[in-house]
Design brief:
alpha/beta; Rossmann fold; 2 domains; two-stranded antiparallel sheet; 13 helices; globular
């Protein structure tokens, strides 16, 4: 089932429907909405597919009902749409990465788009030239795909009177994405198409929030794919122990991978289940007692914890049984002079020195970034025939620094100081009991541990039959599940079943 790309049949720049101004009273030009369009062929899922790749931008307006149409941001996207399909029946999926403030090249070039970058994960990827190949695990046989660069990232830019601060915040970001999606389905006549969201990392925060804001805008979703989820930013606050409990199964998976476990079971999932039982039982009970925990119980719990995490009993006792993911990454292979990756704990590398409590960098990030950035630029120019005089910002300048973390949830009288969006998703499912959610998790992900996701999705008020709306997938990979090709293959199979059932 290989996938082949033909050369572009044509390339054109066209103005999308809708009147837009070409300059603002502030002197900052407002560009016309233009697209570069190319035609391609592929073989995916056992059938030949002719599809159109559209690279372009759409303008979003700050005032929802402003007849003069005053754009404040231009949002960049790359869309892949199958030719000859009835838009009423053809699903469309909106995909984006997280950050917040990160462009979406990772999902586009690594996951379910028509091509993918070859990496050497979990080893650092070698120097250029990098290799981009047809992606036999693309979702194009199931859905049209629209990859969106968050406002302020990629080629997305403020226009007119717009500023970075207009989109730098949890709710500001949700507003901008809602406007873009509504505009996209309006311009492209996709209002009645089955609709899906697909977010990674902070993109899952966005998706949970969008489930509510899109619903309020009259956009009913069929399904949401949550890849490496972060749905509650309050769990790591000082004095709270929940993150220690939900991190432990991921520590266990990592210790298993690096052979830091004695008497290993035959498979890692069995060991993870044993770690879950310990974390939710004896470990939770010990943490609940706090400083009242007896010396004997401290010893007993540390011994049990050591068997799952690979950390020494003495270290665990000195840490009062509370080890953060960052400290775990530094400690597990300290005797070998190595640190572990945050996004993918299979990655390892030497640190500047073997002392200290925290790793100096994340080898799972540095090991793939160069390959993805270079490959995307080359692919965009050579295959999709799109060029720009602007700088492509993989991280939006000024976005994270100005990010407003307050969030007004669906039932909140006052804004939350830190976002809790699992509540938004639960509210949307209660109002639309047909909405399905697929939670995909890498078992070696220490940035968004899978057990934390399980906790949040089981506490969002969806009882009884609605519990069946949420499905889970677990893969031998990290945060970016698709870096492991075998995991990507399994992930793609699970997604195919999910899309079939969610329509």
């Amino acid at each position: 089932m290989g996938l082949t790309l033909s050369g572009p049949a044509f390339c054109q720049a066209t103005k999308a429907p809708g009147e837009v101004k070409e300059e603002s009273d502030q002197g900052i030009s407002i560009p016309k909405e233009a697209t570069a369009v190319t035609q391609h062929e592929a073989s995916i899922g056992g059938r030949g597919i002719h599809y159109t790749a559209t690279v372009g931008d759409l303008l979003i307006s700050k005032e929802e009902h402003d007849q003069n149409y005053k754009p404040y941001h231009s949002v960049f996207y790359v869309a892949y749409t199958e030719d000859g399909e009835d838009a009423k029946n053809r699903p469309v999926t909106f995909l984006y990465n997280g950050g917040p403030g990160t462009a979406s090249i990772w999902l586009e070039m690594g996951s379910v788009g028509p091509v993918r970058v070859i990496s050497q994960s979990p080893e650092p990827t070698n120097n250029p030239p990098f290799k981009v190949v047809p992606n036999e695990y693309s979702l194009l046989d199931k859905s049209d795909l629209v990859f969106i660069d968050a406002p302020g990232t990629g080629y997305s830019r403020p226009v007119g009177k717009g500023t970075i601060k207009d989109v730098a915040g949890v709710d500001e970001d949700l507003t901008a994405f809602t406007k873009f999606i509504v505009r996209y389905i309006t311009v492209n006549q996709r209002w009645n198409s089955p609709k899906f969201l697909f977010g990674e990392s902070y993109g899952t925060t966005r998706s949970a929030g969008l489930s509510a804001t899109l619903s309020n805008a009259g956009v009913q979703l069929n399904g949401i794919v949550l890849l490496s989820s972060l749905l509650n930013f309050n769990t790591g606050s000082a004095g709270l122990d929940n993150s220690y409990i939900t991190d432990l199964p991921s520590f266990a998976a990592t210790a298993y991978y690096h052979n830091k476990v004695a008497n290993k079971p035959a498979d890692v999932m069995t060991f993870i289940e044993q770690a879950r039982e310990f974390a939710q039982g004896a470990y939770t009970k010990a943490l609940y007692q706090g400083n009242a925990l007896s010396a004997a119980d401290l010893d007993r719990t540390a011994i049990q914890m050591s068997a799952f995490t690979g950390l020494s009993v003495q270290y665990l006792k000195e840490a009062n049984l509370r080890v953060s993911a960052a400290r775990f990454r530094k400690e597990l292979l300290r005797d070998q002079g190595k640190i572990l990756g945050r996004y993918d704990a299979r990655f390892e590398a030497p640190d500047q020195n073997d002392a200290g409590e925290y790793p100096g960098f994340d080898p799972s990030s540095t090991g793939v970034t160069g390959a993805y950035v270079a490959s995307f630029h080359d692919y965009l120019q050579r295959e999709l025939k799109y060029t720009s005089d602007e700088t492509y910002n993989t991280r939006g300048p000024g976005l994270y620094e100005n990010w407003d973390w307050k969030h007004r949830g669906t039932d909140d009288d006052w804004p939350q100081a830190w976002p809790y969006v699992a509540g938004d998703l639960g509210d949307t499912i209660r109002k639309n009991p047909h909405l399905m959610v697929f939670s995909a998790n890498g078992i070696y992900d220490l940035a968004t541990p899978f057990s934390s996701t399980e906790w949040e999705l089981s506490h969002m008020g969806t009882n009884g039959k609605l519990l069946q709306n949420v499905r889970y997938g677990y893969y031998p990979a990290g945060h970016m599940v698709y870096l492991n090709v075998e995991a990507l293959k399994e992930f793609r199979q699970d997604l195919a079943h999910f899309y079939n059932d969610a329509q």
